[in-house]
Structure formats: structure tokens, C-alpha cells
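Archive maintenance. Older records in this collection stored only the sequence; we are now back-filling the structure field for every entry so that each record is complete. The fields below show one back-filled record exactly as it appears after the update. Entries are processed alphabetically, and CoA-binding protein is next in the queue.

ARCHIVE ENTRY
Title: CoA-binding protein
Organism field: Rossellomorea aquimaris
Length field: 135
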Amino acid sequence: MENPSRQEIGNILKKSKRIAVIGLSDNPARTSYMVSKAMQGQGYEIIPVNPTIDSALGVKAVSSLKEIEGPIDIVNVFRRSEFLPEIAIEFDEIDSNVFWAQQGVMNEEAYRFLKERGYTVIMDRCIKVEHALTK
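Back-filled structure field:
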């Protein structure tokens, strides 16, 4: 697996506006909440994707990516690595080009599936850290 260069990641973050966050928790102590809140604070629209919560960060949650209307710039995944293949299949059915798995999350099968279809794939990187490093 090979991630885009830091410069390419910076360009992605600069042109992106909407981030769907799979596994976003409504618990402020969870990493997904803290990272998403920071990104929201930087001006990104955060869309929580989690069937087990009603809302997070003041935004109504959706159960799946397919419920989101309009294009999504980045799908940011806070789920365990073994869930990435099924998430990749759903990702392939929506209007988005960037699949981002958070730090510590990676899966070769999902990576190959997405790259074969021409998507930008970033794995095992924290979006908040990358944003800070590429500002």
C-alpha cells in the first residue's frame, strides 16, 4: 500500500469541503469525535455516518453513505481494519473520490479494490495531523 505524497494530501485537503465520517462517535472523549470536531473547526462540513447515534457535532447522523445527498469530498473511516472491504464496496456506489482510513486502520484487500477502480486511497494516516502538516 502506498499513500499519496504529503503534497498531494495537502492538495486534497485544500480543495475538499465535505467529509463523511464513518464511525463518528457522539462521545467527546473518543478520537473520532475530537478529530472531526477539529476538522469542523477548520471549516469542513462533517457528516456523521453511524447507525447507532442520532447526531454528533450538531449534525444529524446517517446510517450509511448512501443516505448522503450530493458529492462527498472525503470519506474518513474510524472503524477497525477488518471492516474496510465492506466499506470500500459501499464507497464505490456513491459520489466520492477519496477514501481515507484513519491512523492504525489499513486493509490490503480494500486498498486493491479501490485503487483498481481509480480512487485516491489514504490509509493509516490521521486527517487532523495531515491537515496541520500541509496547511
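Update note: Residues 31-41 form the longest helix (11 residues). The domain at 6-133 is CATH 3.40.50.720 (Rossmann fold).
Entry marked complete.
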